[in-house]
Each structure stands twice: as structure tokens, then as C-alpha cells.
Amino acid sequence: MAHSGINVLFEGRNLIRLFGGLWTTVEIAAVALVLGLILGVVLGVLRTFPSRLLRFVLRLYLEFFRIIPTVVLLFLFYYILPKQMGVNLPANQVATLVFALWTAAEMSDIVRGALISVPKHQRESGMAIGLSRWQLYRYVLIPQAVSLELPATINLVTRVIKTTSLLMLISVMDVINVGQQVVEANNQKYPTGVFWVYGIIFVMYFVIDYPLSWWAKRMDKKRLERANG
Amino acid sequence: MKKFGFKKLGLFLGIAASLALVLSGCGSSSKSSSSASSTKSTSQSTVQQIKKRGTIRIAVFGDLPPYGWVNKQGQRVGYDLTLARQIAKDLKVKPKFVQVNANNRVDALNSNKVDLVLANFTVTPERKQVVDFASPYMKVSVGVVSPKSQPITKASQLQGKNLIVTKGTTAENYFTSKQPNVKLLKFDSKTQQFNALKNNRGVALADDNSYLYAWVKDQPKYTVGIKSIGPKQYIAPAVKKGNKSLLNWTNKEVTSLNNKGFFDKDYNSQLKPYFGKEVKPSDIVIK
To answer: Are residue B70 and residue B119 in the same domain, yes or no?
Structure first.
């Protein structure tokens, strides 16, 4: 029984299609992460500025994306905005946009947290030797913040990759969506095929996410070793 | 100087972010009120515009064999897909398929993601209020399956006996409201209900006839004794509410395909291998 189930993966082009779906997933996640992380760093730096209005607006942006579930955001951008404003993007672009904005929001908080946890005397010493604000961030704060924020950032990256499994809800042909097609098409012939299809999807996500989370753990350990001698 | 530039940049970004927020806020707050009014002139896909664009976007299922699914070669096939390709061919445009699931078929139309829905879409009064249905191309109704040794061929044979159904199906609905003398044994899933029939927990089982046809094909001891009972339900192409141009064109297309015997051919190539010999095209196809 179990033996016949695994064959569902090797029928026709099934396995190639699953990898095709995985590629769509990875592509969307990668583009969204690059855009989101860059925007997030900029927003995070801005959130440490003294202007109250600016901080309030960015805080609102963060809370908006952090509180609203990703599914709702996807529906909002895919079905509701086009109806209201006539902006009509293909599903893959909507997905990339939503994930980039979400990543940026979360990242801005990570960066802000890292910047304000750089010891205060560092900032004050920088100001005392007459650095401009730009120089202060460029040479003093950001380099020290990077190592503080790295583990949290990698954690965010793995979360974003995992959450791409929601994309099937807005008709993106990601790996989960292709998996369901394969399961339903072969239900009669391979009743146990569902186990193998989701099994291989599990392995795919694991292979992508686990090295990242391992790396994050290692970085954090190293940082602590450095900090505590 | 530097400091000033930084501030300006910050202000600009802040304004952009807040604008995005306000706009998206608008979208969500007016969601409930606006479903009836379609204001955008661009959101219509008339036959002319589709021809000019060169593609028709059609919502289909990707996981419902034999109506709309993907075979192991990765091609979209099925009864609905054959029709979809024929429609595109007759419009002289390319089809572009958007895969949907049952509960976003209406949204896909209303938010202008697709021009036409061909996803086993059953006509119901509720759906008629939000989309426009063209002429139906398929019919389904409740059927009753029973062992060949003790076949049930009339509803009167069921009086006072146990009939197996799945909760929430049209079959349950029909027998509860129209045949109150039939005792119902209700189950949660298809697998459970078929197992119950095999264990003789009831004299027969009622469900959508197309499911039953597919099931008895692998079960030589059983037969669909009552092929159709209660009101018929129709499966039809749907367009966005108010899209008269495409609606009229689709109506004409369904009629002309019917006259050419297209649906019989479609039935024989896509559905017959699933339903077996017991079923005739006239049980499914509309004449």
C-alpha cells in the first residue's frame, strides 16, 4: 500500500511540476524579502529619529501589517482593492507586494530595536567628536546594530518563506497548490498519495528553512561569545 | 545641510506610508456597501475588448476530476476545460486559465480577475443576485444507489427504511424537506457514507448523481437505481453582473455548440471514462 503511494510522485511530470511550484514560491519569497528588508532598514532607521509625527505614522504602518493576518491582507490586495480603485495586478505581483510590505513592517521594528539597544555611550561619544547624524548612523550605530538584528532577521525570513503557503488562496500556483492538483488527480489510483505529496512538500520547506534557522542560531551564539568574551 | 536632507526624506516617506494606509483603509471600509455598484468603466470585459486583448481569462477548477483538473503531464483537462478551449477558439482568442476554488468564484468575477467562470458553477437563486449566468451546459440532481441484488428504483421503496446521506448535501436537504417518511442516516464524509452502505447500514444511499456514477464504476455489486430525484440543478457559465455583451455571446455559443453535438463529444471524451457505461450522455448533457 505504502509502496504504491510513493509512485504518485513519479507519474508523468508530477515531480517536475512540484519543483516548478516550489520555484514560484521561492521566487516570490526572495523578491519580497530583498525589497522588504531594504525598505525595512530605511523605515527602521527613520523610526529612531526624534520627529514625533514620523514615528507615529511609521508605528501605524507597522501595527497595520503586524495585526492584520496575512490572509486578510492578501484578499484585500487581490480582490478588494481592484474593485475599489481599478488597480489590477496579477496574482504573483500582488503576492510579492504584500509580502514585501509585511516584511518591511516587521523589519523596521527589528532594526529600530537593534539601533536603540546599541549602548548609549557609543551614540554620545559619536556626537561628542562632532559626527553628523548621517556619519553617526553610518559609522557608529548601524555596524553595531547589524550583529544584534541578524538572528531576528533570519527568523523573519523563515517565517516569510513558510507563510507563502497561503498564496494558493489568491490563485498563485505555488507548491501547495500544485500538490493539491496532484492529490486530487490521483485520488482514485493512489488513495495514499496524499501522504507522499504533502510529505515531499514538507521536505522541500524543511530543506529551505532549516539551514537558515541553524545559521541564525550559530550567529547568535557567536555574538554572545564575542560580547561576553 | 545633510541633516536637512535627511528630515525631508523622512517626511516624504512618512507621507507616502500614511497615504498607502489611508487608501487601503478606504478599500476595506467601503467593502460591504459597494458590492452592488460597479463604477469602473475599465472593469467591463465586453466581447470587443476581449478580442482586442487577444486573451479571455477563464476561472476553472484545478482539483475536481473529471470537470476541471490537471493531468500528470501538467495539462489542464476536463469537461469544463474542453468547453473553455472551444469558447476561446470560437472567439478567436487565447484562453488564460485562472485556478479558483469553490468559494472565490464570485470574487474572481467581481474583482475583474477573470472574464468567465467555467468551474462547475451550479445556478442558485443566491448566486444569481451577484453574477449573471448564461445558458446551462450540464445538469445534475440527486441520485440513489443501492445493491444490485436488492435494487431501489422508486422513492416509494424507501418509505420507512434507512437511507444513507452526507450532512449538508442537496440529497440530505431534499429528503428532509420532501420525503419525510424516509429515515435518514447521516454521515460526515463521503468515505464514511460509502462504507456504511457496504456494511448494509441502510437499504440505499443518496448523493449527487455524478458522484454516484463515478463510484459505482468501481463497485460492480451496486447500481444507481434512481438516477434523478427531486429538482434538477444546472451548471452554467457565469459572467460579471451586467456584462451583457459577453453574456449574450456566451448564450449564443452554448446554443450553437449544443446544435453541433459538442457536449455529447465532450461527455464521451471527458466524463464517460469516469462514469462508466451505465450513464448516458443525456443524463448529464442538456438537450
So the answer is: yes
Contact: B30, A84; criterion CB under 8 Å: yes
Q: What is the pLDDT of residue B8?
A: 53
Q: Are B160 and B222 in a shared domain?
A: yes
B28 burial type by CB count under 10 A (0-12 exposed, 13-18 middle, 19+ buried): middle
CATH value at residue B199: 3.40.190.10
Domain-located, residue B194 = yes
Contacts of B42 in chain A (CB under 8 A): 86
Backbone angles phi, psi at B97, to 5 degrees: -95, 135
Closest CA–CA distance from residue A59 to any residue of chain B (Å): 10
pLDDT digits (tens, 9 = 90+) for B86-145: 999 999 999 999 998 877 889 899 888 999 999 989 888 888 999 999 999 998 888 999
Query: What whole-number distance in Å separates Cα of residue A14 and Cα of residue A6?
Result: 12
Strands B116-117 and B138-147, how do they pair? Answer: unpaired
End residue of a domain, out of B191, B211, B233: B233
Structural domains of chain B, count: 2
Judgement on whether residues B59 and B120 belong to the same structural domain of the protein: yes
Cell numbers standing for residue A208:
529551505
Residues of A with Cβ-Cβ distance to B10 under 8 angstroms: 46, 49, 51, 54
Q: Does pLDDT of B245 surpass 60? A: yes
**Domains of chain A, start order:** 2-227 (1.10.3720.10)
Spatial distance between the Cα atoms of B46 and B43, rounded to a whole number of angstroms = 10
With bands split at pLDDT 50, 70 and 90, how would you rate the model's confidence at A2? very low
Which has more pLDDT, B60 or B43? B60
Closest residue in B to A72 (Cα–Cα): B28
B89 & B226 share domain: no
Q: Do B14 and A54 touch (CB under 8 A)?
A: yes
Please give the ipTM for the structure prediction: 0.78
Q: Looking at CA atoms only, how far is residue A180 from chain B in angstroms?
A: 7
Distance from CA of A134 to the nearest CA of B (A): 7
B167: left (phi over 0), alpha (psi -120 to 50) or beta: beta
| Predicted pLDDT of residue B44 | 64
**With a CB-CB cutoff of 8 Å, which residues 92-131 of chain A face chain B?**
none
Average pLDDT (A129-158) is: 90
B147 and B222 in a single domain? The answer is yes
